[in-house]
Amino acid sequence: MVALAIACVVGAAPARAQLVQPPAHTARTIPSASAPDTLTESFEVSGIPVILRRAQANEVVAANVYLLGGTRQLTPATAGLEVFLLAASERGTRKYPKVALRRAMARLGTGIVTDAAKDWTMFGARATVPTFDSTWTVLADRLMAPTLEAAEVEQVRDQYLSVVRQRRESPDALLEHLADSVAFAGSSYGIDPTGTEQSIAALTLTQLRDYQRTQMVKSRMLVVIVGNVERPQVERLVSATLGKLPAGNYAWTLPPPLPEDGPAAAVEAMPLPTNYILGYFTGPVATSSDYQAMRIATAVLSGRMFNEIRVKRNLSYAANAPFKEWAYGVGGFYVTTVAPDTVVMLMRSVTQELKQGTITGEGLSQLTQQFITEYFLDNETNADQADFLAQAQLYRGDWRIADAFVDELRRVTPADIRRVANQYIMDVRWAYVGDPQRVPKREFGSF
Predict the structure, then answer these.
(1) Is the pLDDT score of 27 beyond 80?
(2) Could you tell me which of 285, 78, 283 has the C-alpha nearest to residue 196?
């Protein structure tokens, strides 16, 4: 039944990989960057879209395979299936039995990483130029031909369950899981791509094998490589490996709009010296001209929260406004505090100031430049560049839009900040971990 459900989610579509085009009602013209990117190109290899950026400043190669769909591939009962499968593939493949695989990776000194996100699972190789070919071959075989022996799968399950259970011991991990479940209830974004204790415990070997057979297809894949490698080398590697997979019939699209169900709160009692609070609100779709304005607005909000809560009153060691770079720009409020009612009132106060006040043009310019500097310092590795290109391609329809990122941020005006704050910062859905007697219910409702 699970395999059937997955097939129904995929639906019928042309066999070739389909990459998103922005919907007509939200698309806009993106101006070219002042310095066009001449080191990046896109092409197709055996039906798989590939983006290659020649990064010549170092010998590191980041090669990411994006398995599209993310939590839309799952149900609450199958949450974690894809990452469980990828973890189990480390225990051996057709070309590389378990011991041989581990020896090969140890000899190469390289790594293979997995990152499960809401809209895709990234499975990537981290290598150097001389070790890239061999590392890619291992990565591809793990996707194409994992042996999935029963005893090995059970060992992986035990380890995986241990990690998932530890989430309950980490207030931040539990808080984020709780916030997703309440903020996105009824949406695929409400499903944890890493799974739950219940879902991981219930997944069967048959489900893993069926998923590998039916969902490791070329139409679900986008390959992004950043490193000092040449196109012919990439074409050879991809065509000899992933290019031999079935085409499949998956077609990537942006996820449907997130639910707008009004404010809500979920509480998890935990004896802690402080209380953890995280609230989310849904911003604009990534193809909207408001997306970057919302990004800057949350940066302004974050700075004001820190100043009012941490600097002036010392009511928290961590207070900020996160921004989730998803298909929809999800913003939020995060704080840890011993005075939750006071702190939530302060968060509302700075939010109202953002909605009613006006930032000076000079102040916004300085903040934007600081944000740009910090953003690129935090995202300067080859792997970060690969994610940046993939997001532009998948969320906005063209990797070249990544070149306009800085220009878009600099075009945001004080009026834009005020407008998006009023339009989107509302109906906050909260998660609270800590003393249940201190839950600021009235303050939560004021948003």
Answers:
(1) no
(2) 78
How far apart are the C-alpha atoms of 211 and 82, rounded to whole Å?
8
Q: What six digits make up the tokens of 273? A: 């010296």
Angle 11-17-18 from CA coordinates, rounded to 5°: 75
**Residue 25 and residue 37: Cα distance in Å, rounded?**
28
- What ranges make up the beta strands (E) of 87-173? 111-116, 120-128
CB 316 within 8 A of CB 337: yes
8 A C-beta contact, residue 138 and residue 96? yes
Residue 69 has pLDDT above 70, yes or no: yes
| Residue showing tokens 């080398």 | 233
Residue 223: name the closest of 294, 303, 111, 143 by CA: 143
3-state helix, strand, coil in the chain (%, to 5): 50, 20, 30
Which tokens is 298 given? 């949350």
- pLDDT at position 31: 36
Q: Give the pLDDT mean for 308-325.
A: 96
What letter does residue 7 receive in the DSSP assignment? H
Burial class (CB in 10 A: 0-12, 13-18, 19+), 135: buried
Q: Identify the H or E element spanning 177.
A: helix 171-183
Question: Which one is predicted more confidently, 33 or 300?
Answer: 300
Region for residue 314 given its phi and psi (left: phi exceeds 0; alpha: psi -120 to 50; beta: otherwise): left
Task: Report the alpha-carbon distance of residue 238 to residue 64 in Å, rounded.
Answer: 12
Residues found in the chain: 447
Q: Going by C-beta distance under 8 Å and a sequence separation of 6 or more, which residues neighbour residue 185?
A: 259, 261, 264
CA 73/CA 215 separation, integer angstroms: 9
Q: What is the pLDDT of residues 111-144, one digit of tens each?
A: 999 999 999 999 999 999 999 999 999 999 999 9
Looking at every residue in the chain, the average pLDDT score rounds to 91
What CA–CA distance (Å, rounded) separates 284 from 26?
A: 10
Strands (DSSP E) contained in 246-345 are 264-269, 275-285, 318-320, 323-325, 328-337
The answer to whether 171 and 433 are in contact (CB under 8 A) is yes
Per-residue pLDDT reduced to its tens digit, 219-228: 999 999 999 9
